[in-house]
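YM 10:42: ATP-dependent dethiobiotin synthetase BioD sequence, as discussed on the call
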Amino acid sequence: MRLFITAIGTDSGKSLVSAIITEALQADYWKPVQSGLPRDTDTVRSLVSNPRSYFHKEAYCLTQPLSPHASADIDGVRITLSHIHLPETNNHLVIEGAGGLLVPLNEQDFVIDLADKFEAEVVLVANLYLGSINHTLLSINELTRRASYQKFSIKGIVFNQSPVAASESIILKHCPFPLLFSVKKEEKIDKEVVSRYASQIKNIFGK
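YM 10:58: structure's back
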């Protein structure tokens, strides 16, 4: 199984959801493009307990916490899809994107184009805040549009920092793919919290 974790925007909870799914599947984890520090790979590694998961090296590790195309320009490099190669593994692989699905990698390619290149199943993370309904439905529409001609499928949506019942219900009414699970607002995020959610979702991913 190859899962691509994207979101409605920056700081929506991709790394937390990636850690939960990685732990549930005892999957490998890979962040193809890291823009700024701390590295999301280190964050996810610190939240995963199982001994099987392997954390693959980024194709690009950029210094500035900016859109990858801008950070790459500052670092004097150019991101190209042809330079990003799928890691070799016999395990499930969780791939974490950068920012939202239409964050630019260069002048023509977006983060979601990585899901297309690797023919992954997409998981959309939506955090709930004032304005998130619009951002989430726009992301859902764009994913659905692209899935009609690109080589990725859509696994489902995850709500982070739920519940906001009115927001969730209207989003799901207009969402053609399923709700996979929801993450409540936790006082702290640690291995125990990730393990608890992971144990609850194993069946969702067919483990």
